[in-house]
Amino acid sequence: MLIAFEGGEGSGKGTQIEMLKKSLANLGYDVLDIIEPGGTPVGQTIRNILLDRKDLDILGITEVFLFSASRAQQVRTVTRPALKQGKIVLSDRSFYSTYAYQGAGRRQPKELLEQLTSFAVGETTPDLVILLDLSPEVGLARKKDQNKINRLDAETLEFHKNVRDAYLTMAETNPKLWRVVNAETGVEEIHSRIKTIVFEALKIDR
Ligand code: TYD
């Protein structure tokens, strides 16, 4: 099973994935956590270009190709083999980030996003998407506190509001696949909510 975590800046995906991974491992599940962009040596190199090189003027269309390239490499060399071995794969972001950030944020055409995504991932799409929703004001303040501002965080508030709206629209449009969790509450409360959702999907009785 492939579970993707999505959300705006500072939504705490990494922390929640770590906590869920431990909970599932304690129950005997074989879990792999992955991150986008990155997750492979090629992906990590692409990640550096996309996030760290604030000196580069990367066009929106180029971003789409680079995020998709990192994804294409990871799906084939990491995600599919892990799923084949019966692992639960927890993914920190997925192509839905491209739809939100490059689609709503950078205004890149839907057709481009869908076509590149289709080539990049094929049938390997999430079985469940957990959206950690929070206002961009709160999320960006968290990131500033942690001193972790990357090239995309540095975008305008308007950009991040568009990203959030796009996520909420995707979740509303496909409630069977998406679950929305309020990410402005405490870490433990969010973890508990995520566990309920994932245990239900895995049919685990508690
Ligand atoms: P990261 O430091 O992992 O941020 P976060 O902790 O918020 O996930 O950086 C990922 C950044 O890349 C984040 O700003 C979102 C952006 N991104 C895209 O714009 N498009 C994409 O397809 C993906 C996967 C990420």
Automatic annotation (TrEMBL):
GO biological process, one term: dTTP biosynthetic process
Enzyme class: transferase
GO CC, one annotated term: cytosol
Catalytic activity line of the entry: dTMP + ATP = dTDP + ADP
Domain Thymidylate kinase-like: 5-194
This protein's UniProt keywords: ATP-binding, Kinase, Nucleotide biosynthesis, Nucleotide-binding, Transferase
Pfam families in alphabetical order: Thymidylate_kin (PF02223)
Superkingdom of origin: Bacteria
Transmembrane regions: none
GO molecular function terms listed in the Swiss-Prot or TrEMBL record: ATP binding; dTMP kinase activity
InterPro entries in alphabetical order: P-loop_NTPase, Thymidylate_kin-like_dom, Thymidylate_kin_CS, Thymidylate_kinase
E.C. number(s) listed in UniProt: 2.7.4.9
Function: Phosphorylation of dTMP to form dTDP in both de novo and salvage pathways of dTTP synthesis.
Family annotation (HAMAP family): Thymidylate_kinase
Family per record: Belongs to the thymidylate kinase family.
Protein name (Swiss-Prot/TrEMBL): Thymidylate kinase
Annotated organism of origin: candidate division WWE3 bacterium
Recorded name of the encoding gene: tmk
